[in-house]
């Protein structure tokens, strides 16, 4: 295989043990699937060459960015892994738009836009993910209740289809492909370049941590601040507390001096108990996970299995499902470095056709982010079963997944998840990437 493709690729082709081992694992560290080779493309032409080569020979191909998928979604056993971080850096700000290569980290996007006083509207909590890596699942964060997902801020894409055709698409040009790629799990093409809309960037961020002893009170206040939009950023965390739980509403107001946030107005009518407040630069707040990542890498748990699950719950079931889950969750079910997130988003802000959430005014992202053990496969299997059980319970009560999970999903599961938009995705996949060869780790197949 290497001898056949080598003359046509300008970038690197890696077949060594270290490269194949790394490309056969991901962040979840639960599924291992060794590819036949790794290609580090030097241009979009290389990407097109690889996809044409693979299509002609029936070889699976996976596009890999940060390798942060939790359950083998970015793996290609016996096939080709495209390391998209090797694309030449392309970061250009023009007016209120930025054009970037698909392998750029969101931190690098910010480092490009902030000197111009601009920022993407929505950032994920972890900035070391790649742009294309989040756009194929949606890209959600604490500003989603204001601006939707990261996919909602995309203006234009350069995409290489599964047959190796290089196309530029937008809402006005090749809209079928545009809509099938954003939130489309990498099933119709490989994103190589992205144009994003920007908004004015603030200078600073004031962050409140508001603590509650009552789940209903916590949910009521989260619901209120998301609906009225008083904060720029809203998330929440469920924190083990002895034999019970505490609930932390994380709320942030952005500002640029000499203006100051109106604390009295922001906290008015909220029923929290204890609170903490801190003030940082805007970038410092967005990049707050950098120190935590370094610590987890140093002590080793960064490399443990991660049975992460993200489900969207309906507003009328969130309290019951969360309470039931917490009642059955202790340290063994969460892991020493695990955590649980919970926060609402406004459905009217979500415009990406393939981004599926339950019906209603708001949906709740519920994320038990479990950490497993590197030497206890039975325990790891048990944590996966907890994910399966919670997904089943959520789906039976009208919920959906945020599609980045340590969760076995079948084509029928995906059909149920996408619902009414499934036929459009299936048709686009059959047209742009026939053969079910592209990103097969998603386990989504069409005839």
From TrEMBL:
Cofactor(s) this protein requires: FAD
Transmembrane segments: none
GO molecular function, one term: cytokinin dehydrogenase activity
Domain of life (superkingdom): Bacteria
PROSITE patterns: FAD_PCMH
Keyword tags: FAD, Flavoprotein, Oxidoreductase
Ranges of residues in domain FAD-binding PCMH-type: 31-201
Pfam families noted in UniProt: Cytokin-bind, FAD_binding_4
Statement: the UniProt record of this protein carries the keyword Cell division: no
SUPFAM superfamilies: FAD-binding/transporter-associated domain-like, FAD-linked oxidases, C-terminal domain
InterPro entries: Cytok_DH_C_sf, Cytokinin_DH_FAD/cytokin-bd, FAD-bd_PCMH, FAD-bd_PCMH-like_sf, FAD-bd_PCMH_sub1, FAD-bd_PCMH_sub2, FAD-linked_Oxase-like_C, FAD-linked_Oxidoreductases_BP
Gene Ontology biological process terms, A to Z: cytokinin metabolic process
Gene3D superfamilies for the chain: 3.30.465.10, FAD-linked oxidases, C-terminal domain, Uridine Diphospho-n-acetylenolpyruvylglucosamine Reductase, domain 2
PANTHER family named among the record's database cross-references: CYTOKININ DEHYDROGENASE 6 (PTHR13878:SF53), GULONOLACTONE OXIDASE (PTHR13878)
Family: Belongs to the oxygen-dependent FAD-linked oxidoreductase family.
Protein name, per record: FAD/FMN-containing dehydrogenase
Protein source organism: Amycolatopsis umgeniensis
């Amino acid at each position: 295989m290497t001898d056949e493709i080598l003359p046509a690729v300008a970038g690197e082709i890696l077949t060594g043990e270290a490269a194949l081992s790394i490309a056969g694992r991901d962040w979840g560290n639960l599924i291992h699937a060794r590819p036949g080779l790794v290609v580090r493309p030097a241009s979009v032409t290389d990407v097109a060459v690889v996809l044409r080569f693979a299509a002609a020979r029936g070889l699976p191909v996976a596009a890999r960015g940060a390798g942060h998928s939790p359950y083998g979604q970015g793996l290609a056993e016996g096939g080709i892994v495209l390391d998209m971080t090797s694309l030449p850096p392309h970061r250009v700000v023009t007016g209120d738009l930025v054009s970037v290569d698909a392998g750029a980290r969101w931190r690098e996007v910010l480092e490009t836009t902030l000197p111009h006083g601009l920022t993407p509207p929505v950032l994920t909590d972890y900035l070391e993910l790649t742009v294309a890596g989040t756009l194929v699942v949606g890209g959600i964060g604490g500003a989603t209740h204001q601006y939707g997902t990261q996919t909602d801020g995309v203006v234009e894409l350069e995409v290489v289809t599964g047959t190796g055709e290089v196309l530029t698409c937008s809402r006005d040009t090749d809209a079928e492909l545009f809509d099938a790629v954003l939130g489309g799990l990498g099933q119709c093409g490989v994103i190589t370049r992205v144009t994003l809309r920007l908004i004015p960037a603030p200078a600073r961020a004031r962050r409140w941590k508001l603590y509650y002893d009552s789940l209903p009170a916590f949910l009521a206040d989260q619901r209120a601040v998301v609906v009225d939009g008083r904060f720029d950023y809203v998330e929440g965390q469920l924190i083990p507390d002895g034999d019970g739980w505490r609930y932390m509403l994380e709320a942030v107001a952005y500002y640029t001096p000499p203006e100051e946030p109106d604390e009295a107005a922001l906290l008015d009518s909220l029923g929290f108990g204890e609170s903490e407040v801190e003030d940082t630069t805007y970038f410092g707040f967005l990049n707050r996970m950098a120190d935590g990542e370094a610590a987890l890498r140093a002590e080793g748990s960064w490399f443990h299995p991660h049975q992460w699950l993200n489900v969207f719950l309906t507003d009328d079931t969130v309290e019951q499902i969360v309470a039931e889950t917490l009642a059955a969750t202790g340290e063994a079910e969460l892991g020493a470095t695990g955590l649980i997130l919970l926060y609402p988003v406004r459905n009217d802000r979500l415009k990406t056709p393939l981004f599926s959430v339950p019906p209603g005014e708001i949906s709740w992202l519920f994320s038990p982010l479990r950490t497993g053990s590197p030497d206890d496969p039975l325990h790891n299997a048990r944590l996966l079963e907890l994910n399966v059980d919670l997904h089943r319970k959520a789906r039976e009560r009208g919920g959906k997944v945020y599609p980045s999970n340590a969760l076995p999903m079948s084509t029928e599961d995906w059909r149920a998840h996408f619902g009414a938009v499934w036929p459009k995705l299936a048709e686009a996949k059959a047209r742009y990437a026939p053969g079910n060869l592209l990103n097969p780790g998603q386990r989504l197949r069409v005839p």
